[in-house]
């Protein structure tokens, strides 16, 4: 793997961590945009702490993976990919397309992290 590709994949993985830290804080603080989006796709506000815990666990796994335990990073990134596939699916199911770019961005970042850890661990 070239140094440029490796650097870009690490940058995408770090961006995934930063984005997920942001959304975990937003979920836990019950930010207005989170509550509005959740209502649009049919999720009750009571579920937000559980979703934040899943995203937080994935983020922690990415951080541990970046410290050298690549298989854990791969597992965490895979979990985040599955999580955000479900989020995109919830938007599609509810026909909420005006802001579907956000879960798709998170999905793309998680996909980049999977790629990074697959190449590092493989």
UniProtKB/TrEMBL annotation:
<feature type="transmembrane region" description="Helical">
    <location>
        <begin position="100"/>
        <end position="121"/>
    </location>
</feature>
<feature type="transmembrane region" description="Helical">
    <location>
        <begin position="73"/>
        <end position="94"/>
    </location>
</feature>
<keyword id="KW-1133">Transmembrane helix</keyword>
<keyword id="KW-0472">Membrane</keyword>
<protein>
    <submittedName>
        <fullName>DoxX family protein</fullName>
    </submittedName>
</protein>
<feature type="transmembrane region" description="Helical">
    <location>
        <begin position="7"/>
        <end position="27"/>
    </location>
</feature>
<dbReference type="InterPro" id="IPR032808">
    <property type="entry name" value="DoxX"/>
</dbReference>
<dbReference type="Pfam" id="PF13564">
    <property type="entry name" value="DoxX_2"/>
</dbReference>
<keyword id="KW-0812">Transmembrane</keyword>
């Amino acid at each position: 793997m070239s140094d440029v590709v490796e650097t870009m994949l690490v940058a995408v993985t770090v961006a995934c961590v930063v984005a997920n830290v942001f959304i975990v804080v937003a979920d836990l603080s019950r930010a207005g945009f989170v509550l509005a989006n959740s209502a649009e796709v049919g999720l009750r506000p009571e579920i937000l702490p559980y979703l934040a815990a899943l995203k937080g666990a994935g983020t922690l796994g990415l951080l541990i993976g970046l410290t050298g335990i690549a298989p854990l990073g791969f597992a965490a990134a895979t979990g985040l990919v599955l999580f955000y596939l479900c989020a995109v699916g919830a938007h599609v199911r509810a026909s909420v397309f005006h802001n579907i770019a956000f879960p798709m961005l998170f999905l793309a970042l998680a996909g980049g992290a999977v790629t990074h850890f697959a190449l590092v661990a493989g």
